[in-house]
């Protein structure tokens, strides 16, 4: 392992440590809910290994429990994870010249935390080489992904032993508020967030939580419109 890679890898791992307090209970909660809805240990672990996206996994489970059509499940899970496409675009200038297998690993391990930490760090250290950036990125995410898989296993294996009145559902909204709130800085981002929340609340009555799809589309359209307006006003 190159010295530069190892140094930034350890730096990234230290930066990710605060997120452990959220990832572990979040993953365990998914395992508990997956087991309660009839998924086997293998199925729940496969879910976490293949998807690696807590929000869309929870959304898919809830829709499956409600008996939603497969197409609705897929579209909703995709809508919840549309932000990953924007993360990918933002990371392309940093990792675009990496070998294909490295880019594939970066894409597979792209989660909110790895993007949030890496984007902020790369902005502070524009002089870093590709090797240093890869080291930092994998340092932020390997620990969290490993704990996500382990927590899923723990939730499925031992969830039945937990008291029924123990509340874990608050973890989901708190986790996303803690991660996303600091990233909402521009007017376009604020407008998109407000539109998303407003439409989702207004369309709560729609079957199979399909209002989330319209909320996501409305948020993206709003954010794009505000950005275009800002560019024209300043240009």
TrEMBL record:
Cell location: Cell membrane
- What InterPro entries does this protein's entry cite? Brnchd-chn_aa_trnsp_permease
What's any GO biological process attached to this entry? L-valine transmembrane transport
Transmembrane segment boundaries:
15-35, 41-61, 68-88, 134-154, 166-185, 212-229
Pfam families in the record: AzlC
Q: How does it sit in the membrane?
A: Multi-pass membrane protein
The entry's keywords:
Cell membrane, Membrane, Transmembrane, Transmembrane helix, Transport
Sorted alphabetically, the Gene Ontology cellular component annotations on this record are: plasma membrane
State the source organism's domain of life: Bacteria
Q: Which family does it belong to?
A: Belongs to the AzlC family.
What is the protein named?
A: Branched-chain amino acid transporter AzlC
Organism (species): Gemmobacter aquaticus
Organism phylogeny: Bacteria, Pseudomonadati, Pseudomonadota, Alphaproteobacteria, Rhodobacterales
């Amino acid at each position: 392992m190159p010295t530069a890679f190892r140094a930034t890898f350890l730096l990234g791992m230290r930066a990710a440590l605060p997120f452990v307090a959220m990832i572990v209970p979040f993953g365990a909660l998914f395992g508990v809910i997956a087991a309660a809805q009839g998924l086997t240990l293998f199925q729940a672990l496969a879910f976490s290994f293949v998807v690696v996206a807590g929000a869309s996994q929870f959304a898919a489970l809830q829709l499956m429990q409600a008996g939603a059509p497969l197409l609705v499940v897929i579209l909703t899970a995709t809508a919840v994870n549309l932000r990953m496409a924007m993360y990918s675009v933002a990371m392309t200038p940093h990792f675009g010249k990496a070998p294909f297998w490295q880019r594939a690993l970066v894409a597979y391990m792209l989660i909110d935390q790895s993007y949030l930490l890496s984007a902020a760090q790369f902005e502070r250290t524009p002089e870093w080489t590709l090797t240093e950036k890869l080291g930092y990125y994998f340092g932020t995410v390997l620990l969290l992904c490993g704990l996500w898989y382990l927590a899923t296993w723990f939730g499925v294996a031992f969830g039945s032993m937990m008291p029924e009145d123990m509340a874990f559902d608050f973890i989901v909204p708190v986790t996303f508020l803690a991660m996303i709130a600091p990233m909402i800085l521009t007017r376009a981002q604020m407008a998109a967030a407000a539109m998303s929340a407003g439409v989702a609340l207004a369309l709560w009555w729609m079957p199979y939580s399909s209002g989330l799809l319209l909320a996501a589309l409305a948020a993206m359209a709003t954010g794009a419109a505000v950005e275009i307006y800002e560019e024209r006003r300043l240009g």
